[in-house]
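Render this sequence as a predicted structure.
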Amino acid sequence: MTNDLEKGVASLSEAEAKTELARLAALLLSANRAYHTKDAPEISDADYDAEKRRNLALEARFPHLKRADSPSELVGAGVAEGFTKVAHAVRMLSLENAFQDSDVEEFEDRVRKYLGHTGVLSFTAEPKIDGLSLSLRYEKGLLTQAATRGDGDVGENVTENARNVADIPQALSGAPDVLEVRGEVYMSHTDFQSLNKRQEERGGKIFANPRNAAAGSMRQLDAAITAARPLRFFAYAWGAVSEPLADTQFSAINKLKTLGFVTNPLTKLCNSAAEMLAQYKEIAAKRPSLGYDIDGVVYKVNDLELQRRLGFRSTTPRWAIAHKFPAELAWTRLLAIDIQVGRTGALSPVARLEPVTVGGVVVSNATLHNEDYIAGRDNKGGPIRDGKDIRVGDLVQVYRAGDVIPKIADVDLGRRPDDAQPYEFPTICPECCSPTLREEGDAVRRCSGGLICPSQAVERLRHFVGRATFDIEGLGAKQIEAFYRDGWVQTPADIFSLRSRFGAGVQQLKNREGWGAKSADKLFDAIDDKRKIPLNRLIFALGIRHVGESSASLLANHYTTWPQFEAAMTQANIGSGAAWEELLAIDGVGAVLAASAISTFQNEKERAAIDALIAELDVQSVVTRAPVDSPVAGKTVVFTGTLEKMTRAEAKATAESLGAKVAGSVSAKTDLLVAGPGAGSKAKSAAALGVKIIDEDGWLALIGMA
């Protein structure tokens, strides 16, 4: 058979070769799955090798006919050094969580209020698979790329591994020219148990749960390992498409099914929060018998045009929410309470627990929030846990919030040791011995040491290189801590001078334990790659208190360039002046955030560290993409009063989509005030400043929506 298979390649025409390559791709892919995934070989090793050689010979003769799903690119290729990164054409966002029935009812109310919708509003309800998010890109029907979610903007290229997942089609018929299918890679309970049994027999790693097994299997650098793991895939969404799949979420999912994807049969249409909650209960009842892990139910607005109108927050869509299942509970002993000091000086108590399994995961630590939580009261002085405090030695009830973060739910006072003492929250920082202070109205006690506190310095550096900030490959928390401890990196600017200081000479990075010449050069190159940084990421990376990822984007979008942002923060006076008023006029920026940003730039030591950093960087300005024909592009608009034909949130989103800046207050820089019934002080201020004032009908006519 082998000789017959290898004969005749030279005599085949191009058309015959194309047909033969398609046959071989299907045959060898099926054989790979049968051997590696099902442990049930369909053909002998000799025949498999012969077919693969024939495929290689055809590709050598007709290289332009090589298929995207070529068997020569499947298992058997050399092990990659690491995953390349893939920028998602459409961001892969996370979902807002709901934990109570009332959260789901509030979700429906928010959607209706945002849209001004009073009629029937349909939602889809589907199980939330507990696996690894994956995006599959098809071009002209062929799988060309697979990527993990990563940070939502950039993921890992796992294309070769995805080709070995049984439920992922290699080719589609009738699909748009470009189609990105999103879904979840998971492992069934049966397959998980079998895998762990095989791992144990081979002396390999034992996985804690199916989700970890699935994620670990997809992130193997050797595709042969992934091929040997029994992975499955549910499709439930999409990213970039060259043409719409359908008009509704439900129809689009059905379209994915007709294209050959596995979709979840428990997906159902619902017309109210009550129907969503009924489907939640039905799915929860079936959860033990599904054969795979789910951790909740996802609700999505069904009408895709309404999804478009609702749009997105910084990290989550407004049109979807994940209703999580109640956390599992377990009792264990509290061994100690440790204090961790964060980058803003916040003292965070952590419970050290006698290890206990909660929801399939071994838990040995849990958050204790703050000193009030330990004392059994909320931040207003009211009782929580019926006023029971938490003491070292207590038997405590642990749960995983959203099946992720372990927390303490209750204390068994009947089993409290006789010598257990009330916990005294530290008034001196355990890291630098500076006094700890708690400002009025703040639930958190903070170290007053600032930059002299080593824990704050390390945490700020860890934040600086985090995934949402500079995201320097090879420079994570472990490396930052080691470099800080040895005096190599004390400030962010020090990171960018590592090559000049430790790339040559007596003391070199390549000579440190765990480093070599190759890994040192890779780190230096990775650092240099991040000298060019978007303005919003830089602002967030600075670690300014109260400035989160979304507010950093607000500041960047308003000031657009580093010189303009830096000048505004330097010139502003807290509480008064044009620069202060302009800062407060940014919709979403309040006085606390504004004061924190200004104080950071006007602090001598902080400013010196920032200036040193900027000297090492190429800060990218915000690129504004205003529609060419928009009459409001580049203008600053303020909405006030009651809008009757669209909600304030939708009006803001619409204005921003047309290139306008939406401010929260009127100033000399305001171009237009849209005033509805009940407009008060803003209308008076606008009139005094000579700002043009129009009503809602005038606004709709101006933007072409009348």
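Summary. The longest strand covers residues 329-341. The chain is about 35% helix and 20% strand.
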